[in-house]
Design goal:
single chain, mainly beta, three-stranded antiparallel beta sheet
Length: 103
């Protein structure tokens, strides 16, 4: 059994310069938790695999392709591969979400 407690997983350097902690990396998927402070956001980018995001807390905005939606806790967002996307914190509290990449 492998257990990963977020506070014990080190944040890794990433192109977005935000707090990102890889909780799980297995052959079929990887799971990362990201936390954006108010005003922070990811740079618009694409991924070569399908991704979904699950919002754990806070309020933010997600942009996928030409669509933009406000999202908050307990929201799941599907992001198809090769489509530009980003998430940004539009609230006053940390915006925390899981990033699940399907390999």
């Amino acid at each position: 059994m492998k257990i990963a407690k977020v506070e014990n997983v080190a944040s890794f350097q990433n192109p977005h310069n935000v707090d990102a902690r890889k909780l799980c990396d297995m052959p079929g998927a990887s799971v990362t938790i990201m936390s954006l402070n108010p005003g922070e956001g990811l740079k618009k980018h694409t991924t070569p695999v399908d991704v979904f995001f699950y919002v754990l807390g806070g309020k933010g905005e997600v942009e996928i392709g030409d669509e933009t939606q406000t999202v908050e806790k307990d929201t799941l967002i599907e992001s198809p591969k090769n489509i530009p996307h980003l998430l940004r914190n539009t609230g006053k509290d940390p915006f925390r979400f899981l990033v699940v990449k399907l390999k």
